[in-house]
Amino acid sequence: MVLNSMMGLLTLLIVLIETLLLVLFILAMYVGIPITRGIIRILKSPTTKIFNKLPLKRLRQHTLKTVIFKHNFLPIQFTWPDLRYKEWVEKREPFLWSSVHSLDFQPLISIVVPVFNTRKDHLLIMVDSVVSQHYNNWELILVDASSNHGISALTKSCEEIDDRIRVIRTATNKGIAGNTNLGLRVAKGEYVGFLDHDDTLAPHALSEVVRLLQVESKLRPELIYSDEDKVVEEGSIRFDPHFKPDWSFHLLKQVNYINHFTVVNTKKLKKAGYIRRGFDGAQDYDLLLRLVDKGVKIAHVPKILYHWRSSKSSTANDISSKSYVLEAGIRALRDHLKRNGQSGSVKAQPNKPGFYEINYRSSKEVIASVILQPSLDLDQYKTLTNRTVSTIKRNTVQTEIFTTNLSIKQLSKNKRISMKSIVTVPDEGFLPKAVSQSTGEVLVFINAGVYPDQKLWLDKLVGLVVQSPEIGAASPLLVNWSNGLITDCGYVIQDNQRIPLFKGYPVGAHTYFGNSDWVRDVSSLSGRVIVIRREVLEKIFSKNEQNMTNTEYNSKLLEGLSNSNMDTIIWPYVTMNFVGDIAITQQQDQTYFNPNLINTGYEFGLQKIINISEDDNA
Amino acid sequence: MMISKDKVAFIIVCWNNENLLADCLKSIDEQSYTNHTTILVDNGSSDNSVATASKLMPDAKIIKAGKNLGFAKGNNIGIAKALEDKDVKYIALLNTDARVEKNWLKYIIEFAKHKSRGACYQGTTLDYYNESIIDSTHIYLARNGQATQGNWRKQYTSELGPKKVFGVNAAACVISRVFIEAQPFGTKLFDETMFMYLEDVDVAARATVMRWDNYLVPHARALHMGSASSGKNPNFSLYMTFRNNSGLIVKNFSWRMVLKIFSNIPSSDIDTFKHLRSLGKKSASWSIVKGRIVGVFYLPIYMLKRHKMNKYRKVDNKYLWSLMDKGF
Fold it and tell me: Which ipTM was obtained for this model?
């Protein structure tokens, strides 16, 4: 501060004295309170061992830190961890919401919340978020099983906030499934939404969901889910959004990607039998699988309607890594397979709680025909054939492999593998001939440049495709293992254009669209590896395809697949090596870059933010 | 279907505002919710305010205070008179420089009938001179102890709430009778020691710490000219704001919250200082300091009032702190 007058000096003096007094006052509190509390705690402790162990200095530090940081004593600013997301939330999200006035059909929506020893402020903030909904026709049911009397009293007092709030008190804690069922049974609404006791809803949540119900009742969706993000434990800063795809059946069988915010038609929920006991930890996953198997119309709101309090995912409290939770998820998936008459083994993916892998195994003998697409590079083709044969050796499927090269000797005396070579000059017309000569129930097309590198890959892919009638074709995840970047994960549609999904992204990268190594329902495959059933192939092609060239055949196959209403999926449990056009940069002396970083070739982010300046009066 | 058995009493405090009265009273007359009466408290106007009012609204009750009692005392007199009628369930406060749209009262009362612990309600108050700019949607005490008008000067979008907020702006608001009777000061709702400025923040803080709820009902629109009626002396308003600030904090909050807020005050005061001096308003910064010093001398009075509030303070401190971040 530049002082250039007597008045300025006086003012500064007064402010300084005021500040000094306050600071002294505050310091006295800061030092006095923690020491007093520390001493009281020592005096109250059952043994004097604590007193002997902790030196006074460390005790003071510990309690001071607890008081200051844990109870938010100092005015510490918590900054947004992801500034890109912050910008999106502040500048783009407010313009995405739709109005509540244009709704003709306004059903009663019941929101059921099982409450168990919630932190008081989290509970109040949750109730506030429901009371602050734009949509008016809701009711909130709090099922209170808390053991703490103070929290029970607080929950009961929430009834006075609004006459649409009801509290059901149960003295015995029936577990999260039982408690939620208590609330579901008394819900009067036509639809039920599930909310956890310390999470919050966006104020537009219910109106966005109801907007999707404005169709005639035959077409009305019965299960609606939305995107979600996380909110910090202390405060309201949001981070880590999860923008979800539209209905992806196969992703649901790997992980409960639907999660929050879910709204279900009450009648369907009742017919499905509410929430099953005995699946605690994965009870909502089990409910979703049962609903899907019963057949529900599913809709997706591509907006962030739910904020998930992040205290749940701290490693100390991570409930999903407990074994009974993993086991419940496995049982839920096993029941799902049983209901659909599919056979396979379910196991939890290691180090990824909540993620599962289903290995489909067919009981009957299946023959697979592996067709290696011709290539001008003979060395590459030879490597491909050798690699294919050596990896298939470890599989149990009866296989016939079609190649172009006459001189490739039988590389194994394995009775399950038969090598067939077809020579056409030039290599045009190889594909239709190979297909017509093949006898397998499942056909696998592999392009040159792609190298299988896992054992049991054929078993997994063939088992998947044979047992899933809704799948048109599947493809493994193609990765360039020299730098760990994905080269091919299928194509999705954006702005009416086909764009490759996750191309150039590291395998397993955490993005706004989930991780890059999840099972994905995609719009179309690239055609480098296709695993397809013969009956699907025959539906696409008519009889006279003998005169097609390889390229024509490929493109017709891909087109036919994407036009059919069957699913095309990426099955990431099988990966194959494919360098593609993500080339490794040449080693130079001066790279102008850092050897520890990878310059990924694809900008994957949030929708472009339209800059609306605050001076514009729209 | 309006519940028209809930009577609403409009209270208007007037001090030499005869040119503003016509529009104000006309907007009350045109309300679609018809079950209301009006009480005008005249703070010793020297112009024709009283005569104008009685001509425009013959069935309004006019209370002549004789001299300028201030915003707080004027409203308290009006509230006491209004609550004598047992049918009155809500009190609506309206500044003379504020006008309300046709359905303002209807939307608010329809919203309020669900809330048994609702204390104060306001609609979206827009700037009279530019209806696409917000004057206030709510008020709150920020974490640095400064009273803030929510969304001030922001663009108006029609989907802003309804929200549970920290508090409401008294320019155009509705207060429920059950809250007035439940809080410890009776019909002396506004703190008369404060004379002007921050009494509505005081009521808001009082309602929030007593675990009553204040709401924003966004579809109910009102127009406010800003501090047109008292903006003649901005230094005076700064002085009064800072004079009342410490008293407000000490009166309503628990000691832990007082400490947290006071620890933020020095840095924010110095920031305000720098900002005003950079704008060249040196006398304004002097009024801030004067306000703070004089405020210290008023503290004993507020300590007495604090003792009355002790029994009624029930809110969870962490929840209160989270409300003071953005006001909702």
Answer: 0.88
Check residue B52 and give its pLDDT: 86
The C-alpha of B25 sits at a distance from chain A's nearest C-alpha, in angstroms, of 30
pLDDT band at A23 (very low <50, low <70, confident <90, very high): low
Residue with tokens 């500044």: B95
Q: Locate the chain A residue with the closest alpha carbon to B261.
A: A75
Same domain, B138 and B263: no
Amino acid at position A92, single letter: R
Rounded CA-CA distance A486/A490 in Å is 11
Domain assignment of residue A593, yes or no: no
pLDDT of amino acid A583: 47
In degrees, to the nearest 5, what angle opens at C-alpha B279 toward C-alphas B275 and B284?
75
Nearest to A267 by CA among A223, A301, A207: A223
Q: Rounded to whole angstroms, how far apart are CA atoms A280 and A518?
A: 24
DSSP for residue B211 = T
- Nearest chain B Cα distance for residue A126, angstroms: 11
Choose between B224 and A448: higher pLDDT.
B224
| Maximum separation of any 2 CA atoms in chain B, in Å | 56
Band of the pLDDT at B105, cuts 50, 70, 90? very high
B67-104, pLDDT tens digit by residue? 888 889 999 999 999 999 999 999 999 999 899 999 99
Q: What is the DSSP letter of A524?
A: B
Q: Are B16 and B229 within 8 A, CB to CB?
A: no
B275 and B167 part of one domain? no
Domain that holds residue B268: 234-326
Q: Which site among B129, B131, B144, B159 would you substitute to test the A interface, given the most A Cβ atoms closer than 10 Å to its Cβ?
A: B159
Q: Estimate to the nearest angstrom the gap between the alpha carbon of A11 and the chain centroid.
A: 58
Residues B181 and B241 reside in one and the same domain: no
A19-28, A154-163, A295-304, B23-32 — which is least confidently predicted? Answer: A19-28
Longest dimension (CA), chain A: 103
CA gap A138, A131 in Å, rounded = 9
Mutate to test the interface with A, among B117, B258, B326 (most CBs of A within 10 A): B117
Examine residue B185 and state whether it is found in any structural domain, yes or no: yes
Q: What is the pTM of this model?
A: 0.82
- Which class for B123: exposed (0-12), middle (13-18), buried (19 or more C-beta within 10 A)? buried
For position A90, which CATH number holds? Answer: 3.90.550.10
CB B214 within 8 A of CB B168: yes
Residues B241, B180 within the same domain: no
Query: What pLDDT, on the 0 to 100 scale, is given for residue A51?
Result: 43
Residue B92, burial from CB neighbour count under 10 angstroms (0-12, 13-18, 19+): buried
Per-residue pLDDT, A604: 47
Output the pLDDT for position A43. 62
Q: Which residues contact A544 (CB under 8 A, 6 or more apart)?
A: none
Domain count, chain B: 2
A21 vs B140, residue with greater confidence: B140
d(C-alpha A274, C-alpha B84), whole Å? 54
* Domain membership flag for residue B1: no
Domain total of chain A = 2
What whole-number distance in Å separates Cα of residue B284 and Cα of residue B290? 10
Residues of B with CB under 8 A from a CB of A: 114-117, 132, 143-144, 155, 157-159, 161-164, 211, 213, 259-260, 262-267, 269-270, 273-274, 277, 282, 285-286, 289, 292-293, 316, 318-319, 321-322, 325-326, 328
Tally of CA atoms within 13 A in the half-sphere of A226 that contains its CB: 27
